[in-house]
């Protein structure tokens, strides 16, 4: 299956694009997506423990089962000031 990963803030700079299409096996979870992204973009490891994931208007956990064609937003932790 294919999913679209959209990146925000510093993560977008690391990946070098606002979004990428990722091929994953059927039944993949967000954790599988993260593992693949970390292997392709090692600099994302600096944010590995703090990334937030969203599908639609809801945040999801690493166990969330992805669906073919889904878009997942990947964000660094929210900061304010």
Structure write-up:
There is one protein chain. The chain has a 5-stranded mixed β-sheet. Strand 3 and strand 4 (about 60) form a beta hairpin. It is about 20% helix and about 30% strand. It is globular. It has a single domain (about 1-75), classed as Beta-grasp domain (Ubiquitin-like (UB roll)). It is built from 2 helices and 5 strands, in the order E-H-E-H-E-E-E.
Give the key terms.
81 residues, alpha+beta, 2 helices, Ubiquitin-like (UB roll), five-stranded mixed sheet
H-E string: EHEHEEE
CATH class: Alpha Beta
The CATH architecture is: Roll
Which percent band covers the strand fraction?
25-35%
Q: How many distinct folded domains?
A: 1
Structural class: alpha+beta
Strand order of the largest sheet: 2-1-5-3-4
Mean of residue pLDDT?
Answer: 94
* CATH third-tier fold name: Ubiquitin-like (UB roll)
Fraction of helical residues: 10-25%
- Output the radius of gyration: 12 Å
Report how far apart the termini are.
40 Å
DSSP helical segment count: 2
The CATH homologous superfamily is named: Beta-grasp domain
Q: List low-confidence stretches.
A: none
What overall geometry do the principal axes of the alpha carbons give? globular
Query: What summary fits the major beta sheet?
Result: 5 strands, mixed
Structure summary, number of beta strands? 5
């Amino acid at each position: 299956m294919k999913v679209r990963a959209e990146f925000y803030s510093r993560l977008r700079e690391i990946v070098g694009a606002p979004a990428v299409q990722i091929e994953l096996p059927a039944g993949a979870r967000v954790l599988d997506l993260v593992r693949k992204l970390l292997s392709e973009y090692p600099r994302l490891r600096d944010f590995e423990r703090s990334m937030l994931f969203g599908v639609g208007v809801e945040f999801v956990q690493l166990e969330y089962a992805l669906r073919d064609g889904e878009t997942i937003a990947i964000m660094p932790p929210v900061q304010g000031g």
